[in-house]
């Protein structure tokens, strides 16, 4: 479809008017297209040529409304670093409506009722990071929001130490409802009614098979627990750190949302912190499943008016075992092994590997890629050459070799398994910074090239072979700010 043929639907206005704000976006000055995503176009049936028109630019910028669109921002609450904040909301995001069950939202479109002390803008730096990373996560099979396009402008905003150009990224999601949305609704005057209405809305969007089920609200919660256990296992398997796992950044659909000071692990560090404001390490790499469990328990208590909380809390006992089982299954695949051939799913081998990787100071995902193409245990140089300290990995390979022999696992068999799960390219923060630096100079070419790499991480990208090597030591495991 051409852009002018797309009709958006808004289904949020059945809620009480105090639970959202209707408003128009505030356009940026002299908008410029940075990139558009063909894969996302396919999801909503949008013709590629339409993305290269002024009308498309105006659509993202908010100076052109699609038929059926009635822009609005949503209110929600949230626990931020463990402390309850009763009123948050879309402080710089505006919802445009949905098409093909994808809810379109522009981030950086100006002040809303929920902006608090913010300016309602997103800078180019943070927009590029979200645009690329959401696509990288999808390509790894990790549930996530998506991104359709990104624009730059001649509007500027002050961030940290300098003025930066403002940007808008057009995000897409099957749902933008968060645990924090339920927290806000639970504290309204007609809380039970509002909670039921919100739960029905979430079920319709994200758990449609439950619509006619008995105890559907409890089952919605159980389904979210299952999805979140999987999500946390996937994050940790690939060394991903979200950075700000507040309940207002936690999806009711089990998606990765709100990319801020995130990072993929460079060299392995179990307690790595990617957000420099997280001084206590609440959202460290190792803590993520425990924080997810904490968030879900918050949700359980929030649902007390419409659910049997005891049942929800009882089901929460399955969360960490589910997470561990999926994590072990995925880690076995990254090692090319069949977990069913081991009584403990090779738990000891994987725990030993984690310790060895940390001691060896080796790039986490590069290790698995190099392991995928290891030709012989007699020559480990293709892997050990990337480690600062080699002895821990030499010792681990003795254990790995024994497990492979005990399970009659051949190099060919392992290679076949690993090729499907160990990508050559993982989008790292230093790569994104390269693209951001060029973009600030008006050169958006690397943004588009990184999009291709993010969407095809298992492919060869000869021009960018440098990005398939270890992250430079001085750029490894750096901490970022929330404005990232």
Quick tags:
single chain, 484 residues, alpha+beta, 3 domains, 16 helices, globular
Describe this structure as you would to a colleague.
The chain has three domains: about 5-175, no CATH class; about 185-325, no CATH class; about 340-484, no CATH class. The protein has 16 helices and 13 strands. α3 (about 125-140) crosses α15 (about 430-440) and α6 (about 215-235) runs antiparallel to α7. The radius of gyration is 23 Å and the shape is globular. The strands form four sheets. Strands 2, 6, 7, 8, 9, 10 and 11 form a seven-stranded antiparallel sheet that branches. Strands 1-3 form a two-stranded antiparallel ribbon. The chain has a two-stranded antiparallel ribbon with strand order 4-5. With about 475 residues, the chain is α+β, with helices and mostly antiparallel strands.
């Amino acid at each position: 479809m051409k852009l002018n043929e797309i009709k958006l639907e808004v289904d949020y206005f059945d809620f009480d008017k105090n639970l959202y704000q209707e408003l128009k976006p505030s356009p940026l000055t002299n908008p410029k297209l940075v990139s558009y995503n063909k894969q996302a176009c396919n999801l909503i049936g949008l013709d590629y040529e339409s993305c290269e028109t002024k009308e498309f630019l105006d659509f993202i910028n908010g100076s052109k409304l699609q038929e059926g669109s009635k822009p609005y921002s949503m209110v929600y609450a949230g626990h931020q670093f463990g402390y309850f904040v009763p009123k948050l909301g879309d402080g710089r995001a505006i919802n445009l409506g949905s098409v093909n069950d994808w809810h379109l939202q522009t981030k950086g479109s100006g002040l809303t009722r929920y902006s608090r002390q913010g300016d309602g803008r997103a800078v180019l730096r943070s927009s590029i990071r979200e645009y690329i990373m959401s696509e990288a996560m999808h390509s790894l099979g990790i549930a996530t929001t998506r991104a359709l396009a990104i624009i730059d402008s001649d509007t500027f905003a002050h961030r940290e130490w300098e003025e930066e150009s403002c940007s808008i990224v057009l995000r897409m999601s099957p749902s933008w409802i968060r645990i924090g949305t339920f927290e806000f609704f639970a504290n309204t005057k007609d809380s039970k009614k509002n909670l039921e209405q919100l739960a029905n809305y979430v079920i319709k969007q994200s758990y449609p098979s439950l619509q006619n089920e008995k105890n559907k609200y409890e089952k919605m919660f159980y389904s979210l627990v299952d999805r979140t256990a999987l999500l946390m296992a996937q994050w940790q398997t690939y060394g991903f750190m979200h950075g700000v796992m507040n309940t207002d950044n936690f999806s009711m659909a089990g998606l990765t949302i709100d990319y801020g000071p995130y990072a993929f692990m460079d060299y392995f560090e179990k307690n790595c912190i990617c957000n420099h404001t997280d001084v206590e390490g609440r959202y460290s790499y190792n803590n993520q499943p425990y924080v997810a469990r904490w968030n879900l328990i918050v949700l359980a208590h929030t649902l007390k008016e419409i659910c049997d909380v005891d049942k929800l809390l009882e089901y929460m006992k399955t969360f960490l075992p589910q997470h561990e089982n999926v994590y072990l299954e995925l880690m076995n695949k990254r090692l090319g092994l069949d977990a069913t051939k081991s009584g403990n799913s090779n738990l000891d081998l994987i725990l030993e590997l984690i310790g060895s990787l940390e001691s060896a100071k080796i790039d986490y995902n590069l290790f698995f890629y190099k392991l995928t193409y290891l030709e012989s245990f007699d020559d480990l140089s293709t892997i050990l050459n990337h480690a600062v300290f080699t002895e821990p990995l030499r010792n681990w390979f003795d254990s790995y070799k024994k497990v492979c022999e005990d399970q009659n696992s051949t190099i060919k068999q392992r290679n076949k398994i690993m090729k499907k799960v160990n990508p050559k390219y993982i989008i790292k923060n230093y790569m994104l910074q390269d693209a951001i630096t060029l973009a600030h100079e008006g050169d958006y070419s690397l943004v588009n090239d990184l999009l291709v790499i993010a969407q095809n991480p298992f492919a060869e990208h000869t021009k960018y072979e440098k990005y398939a090597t270890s992250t430079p030591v001085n750029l490894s495991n750096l901490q970022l700010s929330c404005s990232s």
